[in-house]
């Protein structure tokens, strides 16, 4: 998964290219909404703090928060933001479209980067696979993206005074619509947590019933070594002793 600098920088580059391809001044595009859309899919990155630092139940926390990294939930959140916080002299529909375009680009980068196909919630709750593996997250191409993105963000900060400001609009219809969309975004993951386990998203089905996967290959994406003698790893709230003679690095 690329870092925020890469997501913001590549989105800004894409917005500048779009401005070149359309008539009118560059300020026609609400760059603030584009950059916000690039970050929205990572709104729940604090999950690791809840699990590793505060000791919240790993599976229950993960299955509730990981759907916020999906087109469905992001569409609801972007709709709420677009209603309540459009750009000056711009429509909420334009703000929504810009945020969704940036979010879709975010998901594209996430699904392409990395060589481990543990899973993806981009098309939650219908599909949890990661069919495409693009480039190594620690390879030269990822580094090139990071450096280019950092330079683009420097240019963005230079030009930020030209961006249309965001205007808070709290009329009764907008507030009601925004709250309804936000409530839907918060409630939907509650009713689909068990569905993720049943569909074996991120191999959660294996975590619930390890014996059912005997003899099959599984991929553990979030494991860490907790002991070397005997070699033991922890994935979510479960620990596994490995039957191997190879040493493990902690």
Describe this structure in words.
The structure is a single chain. The chain is mainly alpha-helical. It has one domain (4-203). Helices cover 51% and strands 6% of the residues. The protein has a three-stranded antiparallel beta sheet with strand order 1-2-3, with no helix packed on it. A hairpin with a 2-residue loop joins strand 1 (224-228) and strand 2 (231-235). The longest helix is centred in the middle third of the chain and has 21 residues, at 92-112. The protein is globular. It starts with a helix and ends in a 9-residue tail after the last strand. 28% of the residues are buried.
Ends distance: 22 Å
Strand order within the widest sheet?
A: 1-2-3
Mean pLDDT: 83
Give the overall form: globular
Beta-strand percent range: 5-15%
Radius of gyration: 21 Å
For the report, how would you describe the main beta sheet? 3 strands, antiparallel
Task: Report helical residue fraction.
Answer: 40-55%
* Beta strand count: 3
Unreliable spans: none
Number of individual domains: 1
Count of helical segments? 10
Question: Helix and strand string, N-terminal first?
Answer: HHHHHHHHHHEEE
Structural class: mainly alpha
Please give a quick description of this structure.
This protein is mainly alpha-helical and about 250 residues long.
């Amino acid at each position: 998964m690329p870092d925020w600098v890469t997501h913001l920088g590549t989105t800004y580059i894409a917005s500048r290219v779009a401005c070149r391809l359309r008539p009118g001044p560059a300020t026609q595009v609400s760059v603030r909404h584009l950059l916000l859309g690039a970050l929205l899919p990572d709104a729940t990155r604090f999950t690791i703090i809840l699990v590793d630092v505060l000791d919240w139940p790993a599976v229950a926390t993960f299955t509730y928060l990981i759907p916020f990294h999906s087109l469905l939930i992001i569409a609801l959140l972007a709709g709420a933001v677009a209603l309540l916080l459009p750009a000056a002299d711009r429509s909420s529909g334009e703000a929504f479209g810009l945020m969704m375009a940036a979010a879709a680009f975010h998901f594209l980068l996430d699904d392409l980067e990395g060589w481990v196909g543990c899973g993806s919630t981009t098309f939650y709750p219908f599909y949890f696979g990661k069919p495409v593996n693009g480039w190594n997250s620690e390879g030269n191409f990822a580094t090139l993206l990071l450096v280019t993105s950092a330079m683009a963000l420097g240019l963005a900060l230079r030009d930020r005074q030209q961006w249309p400001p965001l205007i808070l609009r709290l009329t009764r219809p907008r507030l009601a619509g925004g709250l309804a969309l936000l409530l839907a975004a918060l409630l939907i993951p509650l009713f689909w947590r068990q569905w993720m386990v049943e569909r074996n998203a991120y191999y959660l089905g294996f975590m619930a019933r390890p014996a059912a996967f005997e003899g099959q290959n599984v991929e553990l994406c979030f494991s860490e070594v907790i002991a070397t003698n005997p070699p033991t790893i922890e994935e979510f709230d479960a620990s596994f002793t490995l039957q191997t003679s190879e040493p493990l690095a902690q």
